[in-house]
Design goal:
Layout (H helix, E strand, L loop, with lengths): L6 H19 L36 H35 L8 H47 L9 H19 L3 H28 L5 H7 L1 H29 L1
Length: 253
Amino acid sequence: MGLWKNPFGTSSSESKDEPDHEAQSIPPPPPPPLPSPATSPPIEIAPAPPSRFDHARLSTPFEIRTVLAGTIAFFSGTALGMAHGSQAAGLRYRAENAHRLPTDATGWYLYHKSKNYHAMLGGVREGLRMGVKLSVWVSGFFMCEEAIDRARGLGDSRGDFGSTVVAGLGTAGAWSLWNRFPPITIARTARMGLAVGLGYGLLQDAVTLLRGQRLSYIEYFRNLPRRFEDRRQRNVQKALARCGNSDDNTQHT
């Protein structure tokens, strides 16, 4: 009895070993793919419509440019006028009171106190006067420049240094007539206006080129070879057409 073996024992062990062998022979399933972020086509942004800022001088509208220039000119003229006016008022006070100088310490204290008061008051008056005057003339220069641009048909496009030069000369001439300068001073003022207009105009054109924008006169000179070639082609076509017409006339005769 002890040597008896269960005939089903071997089969059961074999049946247990076969699945293990089969399990070892079957490759493991591949790992699941890693989750990838959801991808979508890029959103196309519609280009912004062109505005008048793109074609204005220094990419700034005429109104804002004029107000900024007038404000800067006012503060600059005020500072210069206060410095000049206070000095002139102090010298004037000294000249007016040179015949009655004080003789004691109290008199000198009151003298300098009064002189400083007159210098401060004269500086404020001269500063405001020069600030307003300079602001008006600078604003007039910018208005003249814009008017010339519009007269040339460049009101909605970018101008060039030509309008700035003419505006500088016109402002210099108006300043000379306002102050009734002699001819020599008028010529000197005109040269100064020409230099300022040319320098400021070329500076604006340089800023325009640095921003990657185009200028009309540069594009004109750049397209000269193509224009000459187009004109030559038209002349050749006209000559060929005339030759063809003359041949037809001779054949008919």
